[in-house]
């Protein structure tokens, strides 16, 4: 049931984006049909044609475009997809859709092994349909979910290695090593915590060190780009600064520093509140509010980032009210965002900006509510959760 659900949902999502697959966007179909996907234009923007090796071979400077702007594993995920597709937009999109389907399947299998049929929170999520083929985040989500499953099976070295590889594709899985290691400390197994930490660092380093040595300038572009990147439209920072008549881009450095401080302050408050509500609570469960707080305080909240939370709803907050509310407004944000972009291109054809910003604000409020629900919920140790062997047909596949 879980596997069928994720295949159907991802298939529908890929089909919904298919009108944009050929990159013929002169008629603004990406906004009219809501079929926008980063995947399509980035074939050209990331300059993957003619077999260019990311980081190792330089990008041609083009005004207004960024190249090699993703971590190593994600860039080489793209590189492999283009080798298969042969520098053609349509096949490029469908090859990526197939590879991301494999990532979605891996995510739900890993979640099922720990949480059973609650993996349907992932497999049937509307945001999976809408955002699964918007970008490559499902690659990191799959590695992170597999890392949690390995941790639940007491394979801490493997868990750390998977989180390290996840961090080499999208940095957020690195955050998850903290609550997992803290759980081993709580269990009075500090050697396992150290093993998990070292394997996390080792997994990341194994992928990144060759590029640090061979192409430090190209490798560091991702970090330089994000350090100076303007706050995103979907960020509460952008909305707040606009309301007071200030340009978010003009304060990118300040916003970056303030967002880091807000993140540390936020997780400290949540940890303290949870410790008061449930002293000695299972530390691994802190992964959920950790990610939510990061999304709320970060200067960038790209549309597909909500995918990060899907396995954690299944693991730590299977509250259908909160999940449904988050899903509804995650979808509303997507709709109003791109309808506003249409309005910018063709006045009176789309929706005003204030509707989009209102949707972002409501989604943020829902996520705060989710943290409150998480604090109030009594969490069990992951050792008490059922670790399930995958069905024989999954193993055979």
Question: What is the domain tally?
Answer: 1
Query: Percent helix among the residues?
Result: 55-70%
Largest sheet: none
Mean model confidence by pLDDT = 93
Tally of individual helices: 20
**Helix-strand sequence:** HHHHHHHHHHHHHHHHHHHH
Low-pLDDT windows of residues:
none
Helix/sheet category: mainly alpha
State the end-to-end CA separation: 16 Å
List how many beta strands DSSP finds.
0
* Beta-strand content estimate: under 5%
- Please compute the radius of gyration using only Cα atoms: 21 Å
Inertia-based shape? globular
In short:
By secondary structure, this protein is an all-alpha fold.
Notes on the structure:
- This protein is mainly α and about 400 residues long.
- The chain has one domain.
- Helix content is about 65%, strand content about 0%.
- It is built from 20 helices and no strands.
- α3 crosses α5 (about 90-115).
- The radius of gyration is 21 Å and the shape is globular.
- The mean pLDDT is about 95.
Core attributes:
single chain, 397 residues, mainly alpha, globular
SSE order and pairing:
Elements: H1 2-17, H2 29-32, H3 39-45, H4 72-85, H5 89-115, H6 120-123, H7 126-131, H8 137-152, H9 156-167, H10 173-186, H11 190-214, H12 216-219, H13 221-228, H14 236-243, H15 252-277, H16 287-297, H17 310-316, H18 320-345, H19 353-376, H20 392-396
